[in-house]
Every structure is written in C-alpha cells, then in structure tokens.
Specification:
Helix content: 40-55%
Structural class: alpha+beta
Shape: flat
Largest sheet: 3 strands, antiparallel
Number of domains: 1
C-alpha cells in the first residue's frame, strides 16, 4: 500500500517539483533577490524551498552519528 501511494504521488507531482541549486522547490527558478543596502551591506533573500539540501545533509549526519554511537555501545 505504501509503495502504491509513493508511486502515485510521484506521478502526480512529476511536473510540479524542480531541483535547483539550494534544494527542491515548486518553482523552476530560485527567485532570490540580491541587493546592497544604504550602508553597503550585501543581502540575499530567497523564496522558501520545500526541502533544502543543507537540512537533508544535517539530518543524515545526525542519523549516522547516532548509528555509530549505538554500534560502539554494543561492542563495549
């Protein structure tokens, strides 16, 4: 049942999700606004992504660290 739901959602959202340089988004282009303020400080404001690559890599690192700690405790 889970497989059917995953495949069905993947087929339905096939044209709605795009991979950009920051993550997965509903838009084809990033839509970041870059500007300098009156003090000369650079600002970059970007639209929200559905999934950011940084969030995914942080989650994977936490999972790997937890697995390593659990494995070490088994062999001590």
């Amino acid at each position: 049942m889970k497989t059917i739901l995953i495949l069905l959602s993947a087929l339905l959202l096939q044209g709605c999700l795009y991979f950009n340089d920051r993550g997965v988004s509903g838009r084809y282009y990033n839509g970041c606004k870059e500007y300098y303020d009156s003090m000369g400080v650079y600002h970059k404001e970007c639209d929200e992504n559905i999934v950011d690559y940084q969030t995914v890599t942080d989650g994977v690192k936490k999972g790997v660290n937890a697995t390593v700690d659990t494995t070490k405790s088994l062999f001590e």
